[in-house]
Amino acid sequence: MRYAAFASAQTTRPVRSLLREGARLPPVVFDALLAVVIFFLGVGLNGAVYQGPPGPLILHTALAVPLAWRRRAPLTVFCAVAAAAFAQWLADIQLLTDVALLVALYTVAAHSTWRRTLAAAAVVETGILLAAARWAAPQGGFLTSVVFLTAVAAAVAVTGVNTRIRRAYLASLEDRAVRLERERDQRTRLAVAEERARIAREVHDIVTHNLSVMVALADGAVFAQHSSPDRASAAMRQISGTGRQALTDMRRSLGVLRADEPDALRHPMPGIAQLESLAGRMRAAGLATRLGLEGDPAPVPAAAQLTVYRLVQEALTNTLKHAPPGTRAEVRVRCAPGAVTVEVTDEVTDDGRTARAAGPPPGRGVSGTRERVPGHGLSGLRDQTSGRGVSGTGERVPGHGIAGMRERAAAYGGTLEAGPLPGGGWRVSATLGLGSVADGAA
């Protein structure tokens, strides 16, 4: 019994394979083969039909041959087959090739509209009534023939409609898959563009800030190398420290991009706590900087703290590059529930005297930092060089840095304002809404 089952399975496999191969035939070839099969089904293989008059052979041909074009012109083929069937009824000839009318009905139902399907079904039902009245009524089988043939025709029509609906459903799924793929590609392109912009902002902030500080220190060291070697040596040491800090920041940024590396977790990106060291580096570069911090920064997310740090860094770097000698910068950071406010202002002094008061006196700010007065320590080196700051101009020109600052603030649903003050100087103010944090905002 096991051998018989095995032999049966081996026998059915080639049959299934042939059926699968047949299903892959081109539609034109399949329809032509179907027309040939129906023709020989009606004619018979023994050739007896050819011994009579040519009328039945012509009807066989008229019923079967149009099926070869059934998919290209469903309604036309149906009309041709129906006309041949009506001629058959008029000639009072019964043929097995009448099954071609059911195939034509199926094709109309599968490839045409509901209205055409109903019209074709009505034509078939009329033919059923005529055929039953002529060939089944004399034997008393009119009702039985009508019910049976109507059921067969209805099943064929329903199958065709189901095929059409399924084909439309599959087409909609394919179209949806194409749209989803396009949307996915679009989202990928947008994500790549956003990531590139984020990386560009990070690199701009890190490189621009540290290079500006290093250039300011180098200019001062060149000026003081003969008159004050100690101060020049201190400036060179500060340049070395700033360069190492830049390398560290770059490694941290790359570590965040490669999140699978544990180094990204051991060395987090800078935040509000590192603003004091940032202010110290700016003082060493010659920009008198005062830092004020209000509120508790602990509840502020790390990404938002990085944004605050980068905003302050960019604003101070712009002041260092573009502000005239004797400029003093003041940084205020307020951490409130649901929002963080950042304000960076610089005020111009004349010969070391403050032209306008802005905030608490030196050394009494919230941060408790000391103010480095121009002319003392390394800060005096900046005043004695070109007299124009790092950029070589006294003008403040908004560039890519301010645009990047606006993008950072907008990522948190906030705003940023940057512009000159009426009494002289520059002001940058930003508000970050912590309740609308965007992924990867920093």
UniProtKB/TrEMBL annotation:
<dbReference type="GO" id="GO:0046983">
    <property type="term" value="F:protein dimerization activity"/>
</dbReference>
<feature type="domain" description="Signal transduction histidine kinase subgroup 3 dimerisation and phosphoacceptor">
    <location>
        <begin position="195"/>
        <end position="260"/>
    </location>
</feature>
<keyword id="KW-0808">Transferase</keyword>
<protein>
    <recommendedName>
        <fullName>histidine kinase</fullName>
        <ecNumber>2.7.13.3</ecNumber>
    </recommendedName>
</protein>
<dbReference type="InterPro" id="IPR050482">
    <property type="entry name" value="Sensor_HK_TwoCompSys"/>
</dbReference>
<dbReference type="Pfam" id="PF07730">
    <property type="entry name" value="HisKA_3"/>
</dbReference>
<dbReference type="GO" id="GO:0016020">
    <property type="term" value="C:membrane"/>
</dbReference>
<dbReference type="Pfam" id="PF02518">
    <property type="entry name" value="HATPase_c"/>
</dbReference>
<keyword id="KW-1133">Transmembrane helix</keyword>
<keyword id="KW-0547">Nucleotide-binding</keyword>
<dbReference type="InterPro" id="IPR011712">
    <property type="entry name" value="Sig_transdc_His_kin_sub3_dim/P"/>
</dbReference>
<dbReference type="InterPro" id="IPR036890">
    <property type="entry name" value="HATPase_C_sf"/>
</dbReference>
<keyword id="KW-0067">ATP-binding</keyword>
<feature type="region of interest" description="Disordered">
    <location>
        <begin position="350"/>
        <end position="403"/>
    </location>
</feature>
<feature type="transmembrane region" description="Helical">
    <location>
        <begin position="28"/>
        <end position="50"/>
    </location>
</feature>
<keyword id="KW-0597">Phosphoprotein</keyword>
<dbReference type="InterPro" id="IPR003594">
    <property type="entry name" value="HATPase_dom"/>
</dbReference>
<keyword id="KW-0902">Two-component regulatory system</keyword>
<dbReference type="GO" id="GO:0000155">
    <property type="term" value="F:phosphorelay sensor kinase activity"/>
</dbReference>
<dbReference type="Pfam" id="PF23539">
    <property type="entry name" value="DUF7134"/>
</dbReference>
<keyword id="KW-0418">Kinase</keyword>
<feature type="transmembrane region" description="Helical">
    <location>
        <begin position="142"/>
        <end position="161"/>
    </location>
</feature>
<feature type="transmembrane region" description="Helical">
    <location>
        <begin position="118"/>
        <end position="136"/>
    </location>
</feature>
<keyword id="KW-0472">Membrane</keyword>
<keyword id="KW-0812">Transmembrane</keyword>
<feature type="domain" description="Histidine kinase/HSP90-like ATPase">
    <location>
        <begin position="305"/>
        <end position="433"/>
    </location>
</feature>
<feature type="domain" description="DUF7134">
    <location>
        <begin position="24"/>
        <end position="167"/>
    </location>
</feature>
<dbReference type="GO" id="GO:0005524">
    <property type="term" value="F:ATP binding"/>
</dbReference>
<feature type="transmembrane region" description="Helical">
    <location>
        <begin position="75"/>
        <end position="106"/>
    </location>
</feature>
<dbReference type="InterPro" id="IPR055558">
    <property type="entry name" value="DUF7134"/>
</dbReference>
